[in-house]
Amino acid sequence: MEKREKLYEGKAKIVYATDNPDLVIQYFKDDATAFNAAKKGTVDEKGIMNNKISGRIFEFLQSQGLPTHFEKTLSEREMLIKKVQIVPVEVIIRNRAAGSLSRLLGIPEGTQLKSTVLEFCYKRDDLGDPLINDSHIKALGLATEEEVKAIKELTLKVNELLSKFFLKLNLELIDFKLEFGRYKGKIILADEISPDTCRLWEVGTGKKLDKDRFRHDLGNIKEAYQEVMQRVTA
Ligand code: 5GP
Predict the structure, then answer these.
(1) Within 10 A of 188 (CB to CB), how many other CB atoms are there?
(2) Is the beta carbon of 99 within 6 A of some atom in ligand 1?
(3) What would the pLDDT profile of 195-219 be if each residue is shown by its tens digit?
(4) Which of 12, 32, 5, 6 has the alpha carbon at shortest distance from 77?
(5) Among 4, 15, 130, 188, which has the highest number of CB atoms less than 10 A from its own CB?
(6) Coil, helix or strand for 170?
(7) Are strands 39-42 and 31-34 parallel, antiparallel or unpaired?
(8) CA-to-CA distance for 80 and 72, rounded, in angstroms?
(9) Which residue minimizes the CA distance to atom 24 of ligand 1?
(10) CA distance between the termini of the chain
(11) What is the reported pLDDT for 1?
(12) Number of CB atoms found within 10 A of residue 204's CB
């Protein structure tokens, strides 16, 4: 398998073509951004840690029968993935209130929600990824009703599996963001699942082991990601 030209560069990752038209390489950078890129920085070895964590989580989800874009880990910072057409919608699950939900609805951070919240945001950096609903997705033609149904079902299944997975590691999955892609007519899980895209609090202490340490200058960012990596790969 041969690495070819750069296809896309995002805030935290780069995608390269390969000699196989169905497969691409996802490269994880140390760059970190928050608040729609208003805050920028780097976290030493974040790319290495997120590649490891994401790879392990995708392997776990695949072992449970969920379709993902993950093929295999190639190097410290690279994984081989299926080339998908990304659905321009971010899917967020919330088990406890935090972040933008706390701000939007005036709910104190950490409030246990009476039921799981599933949100959609339109993937548009120029608009600040606005919150949208199923009817916006349909009206804008971002995905079909059938695709939205598949995305919701997969997302709720991921929440069920990962909440248990992390709890065994003494971590509570507060919320997370997923992205999906189309591959050979099917919806599959894409992007990454890491402390960049999840809120993870240590059970008992409530210690934040995720990107909120970068967002809110809480310090020990690398140590927090290392902590998650060690538990996830143990
Ligand atoms: P919030 O909407 O509270 O900022 O984020 C909810 C959850 O989704 C958090 O776990 C957060 O890390 C993740 N999330 C939401 N939007 C983005 C995004 O654009 N990039 C990343 N990396 N994570 C996001």
Answers:
(1) 19
(2) yes
(3) 999 999 999 999 999 999 999 999 9
(4) 12
(5) 188
(6) coil
(7) antiparallel
(8) 5
(9) 197
(10) 29
(11) 87
(12) 8
